[in-house]
Amino acid sequence: MDIESNRSARKWTRGELIGRLLWAFCSPLFRCSPRLLWGWRRFLLRMFGAKVGRHVQIHPSVHVFIPWNLTIGDWSSVGFDALLYNLGPLVIGEKVTISQRAHLCGGSHDFRDPAMTLLKLPVNIGDGAWICADVFVGPGVSVGRDTVLAARAVVVKDVAANLIVGGNPAKMIGTRNGKK
User: Is residue 180 situated within a structural domain?
Assistant: First the structure.
């Protein structure tokens, strides 16, 4: 591994660095807000470039890394202690539930490159999906419409619509319409 090259590589533009610094200073206004101030947290995220739909509920303990890489559709919710590690674009559809302590991870490193180049990959969650408690969704993953990722699932590949998956690594355990 070429650690020196990794550390010396420019991973962020000057604008991104300034934005991340400003978000770091303002994020306590998000995290220390009372639970019922859903609109206040939507406002703060929008001020930093997030596209947040109507009636979205985001718990104050949610950790959003880069607000301007976040899109959340109407009527979606993100539960307490969820980690939205959105180095790349994170798109959460409409009427999606992200349960407590879920980890949506849009960043990794290219392990094939000796310099371990930073990867900023998209994560897409389809409308009506339910990401249950403690689920890990890896970089570059798309989750289909109305899909359920069962508690503690580790999802590192795309998941089609209307499926229920669980385990590590996640495997199909059923469908939303009850058929296998």
Answer: no
Number of folded domains that form the chain: 1
Domain that holds residue 128: 3-175
pTM of the model: 0.94
Q: What is the CATH number of the domain that holds 94?
A: 2.160.10.10
Read off the pLDDT of residues 48-69 as tens digits, 9 standing for 90 and up: 999 999 999 999 999 999 999 9
Taking only the tens place, the pLDDT of each residue in 121-134 is 999 999 999 999 99
The 3-state secondary structure of the chain, one letter per residue: CCHHHHHHCCCCCHHHHHHHHHHHHHHHHHHCCCCCCHHHHHHHHHHCCCEECCCCEECCCCEECCHHHEEECCCCEECCCCEEECCCCEEECCCCEECCCCEEECEEECCCCCCCCEEECCEEECCCCEECCCCEECCCCEECCCCEECCCCEECCCECCCEEEECCCCEEEEECCCCC
β-pairing, 51-52 vs 70-72, is parallel
Domain-located, residue 116: yes
